[in-house]
Amino acid sequence: MHTAALDHLTLAAFIVVGALFVPVAVLASNLLAPSKPSAKKAASYECGVEPVGPPWVQFRIGYYVYALLFVVFDIETVFLYPWAVAFNAMGVFVLVEMLLFIAILALGLAYAWKEGALTWR
Amino acid sequence: MSPLAVSVLKVLACLGLMLANGVVMIWMLRKVLGHLHLRYGPLEMGPSGILQTTMDVLKLLTKEDVMPGAADKALFWLAPLAVFVPSLAAYAALPFSSTLRATSLDTGLLYTFAALSFVPLGILMAGWASGNKWSLLGGMRAAGQQIAYEVPLLLSVLPIVMLTGTTDLGRLVEAQSGVWAGFLPRWFIFDPLLWPTFLVFVVAALIESNQTPFDMSEAESELVAGFATEYSAMKFGLLFLSEFSNHFIISALAVTLFFGGWLLPWVPEGVSASLAPVTFILKTYVGIFVMMWIRGTFPRVRIDTLMELGWKRLIPISLALVVVMGIVIKAMPALARVVG
């Protein structure tokens, strides 16, 4: 079998074995352990106080802004990897191109910074 | 043997290593933290308490698995799976020696980062599904900090990729073989050009692995146990096994990228080659020890300072490092090659 194909088979095996191990381990523990459910036991743990209100509380909007910024920068980083691998093999123009790319991104980051999107409030 | 059997055996070997790592690292954490606090740590079970975690595993196995009434049942079950599977899969590309590795991916570095980046998803899932305010806060914080630091983590290793022109973890180690100036191993950590890179990598890696002083997602003094508050028995065990295993992966990446991987300097080639997996794992455990040392030494930082450090300092710095490395390689190739 070709090495790359074998590698992909192994990666698939990682996912399948991992996905099987979790239910097997949990079920084994469920077989061995006692089970006496009660309403008090199933209550949400809030340090002994009766829970007030729904557990899914509103959280700050800042998380969404960070998530949006993350998508932009993560994709940019993925673009940079193939560039870095090929960097030595190519001339100065790849450096100039990437400088332009990074400059545009830095502008975007500076704008987000100026708008206060990076500040945790 | 059929290719499928070989693949499954490789996975089982990695699974065994992962479980052994969990048992050893949790015992080691207690011992190291204990001695840092001028305590003894575990003592009773076996010599120096070495069997303590084994007993803990047995305890977790026989504990009642409580399903919280407010939980989203399906997601509550899925979350340990979503944390465990990528954590196991991250072992696939680690080079224990030039031949001993589950896969020889050309994109090993990216693959390992990709596997690790699934972890916040599972933690967010656990936090959301628990139906508990502590869990939700812990899960949100974990996701927030891990996505904030994934970008600097990925960017920080780019200079090394630019120097070597590969993301194959095995070839990254081979690029560090030999000695410089007669005695200094050509590990990337001894390359002054890469010192800022290493600093950014260390900070981002510690945060990515939810290590104290950046363990905002658990912060037991504020959030009880964060995303794991409602978990018990084996599901809890699996969540924590994955977390410890991720510390191993992060440390192994640091060893591969900066500390010469399986290479042992100043000894004959044959000795270095035959000891390769031992060297690799020992180096990784030294890295883990340093992480525990940091954990026992520094106070926890605040979430706002943490987020601003990532977005306002580390990302611009790591972008600048990429630019500087690019200019050095193109304009002063001699300087880049002296050490790189």
Task: Give an overview of the whole structure.
The complex is a heterodimer of chains A (121) and B (340). Chain A is mainly alpha-helical and 121 residues long. Chain A contains four helices and no strands. The longest helix of chain A has 30 residues, at 3-32. Chain B has one domain (67-339). Chain B is globular, with a radius of gyration of 21 Å. Chain B has helices at residues 3-36, 52-61, 73-89, 108-116, 119-129, 133-156, 158-164, 169-174, 195-208, 220-223, 233-258, 269-274, 276-297, 303-331, 333-339, and strands at residues 179-180, 184-185. In chain B, helix 1 (3-36) runs parallel beside helix 13 (276-297), helix 3 (73-89) packs antiparallel against helix 5 (119-129) and helix 5 packs antiparallel against helix 6 (133-156). A two-stranded antiparallel ribbon of chain B has the order 1-2. Chains A and B meet through helix 1, helix 2, helix 3 and helix 4 of A and helix 1, helix 3, helix 6, helix 7 and helix 11 of B.
List the main descriptive attributes of the protein structure presented here:
heterodimer, A: 121 residues, mainly alpha, B: mainly alpha, two-stranded antiparallel ribbon, 66% helix
Distance between the termini of chain B: 41 Å
Percent of residues in beta strands of chain A:
under 5%
Largest sheet of chain B: 2 strands, antiparallel
User: Number of folding domains of chain B?
Assistant: 1
The number of distinct β-strands of chain B equals 2
Write down the overall mean pLDDT of chain B: 84
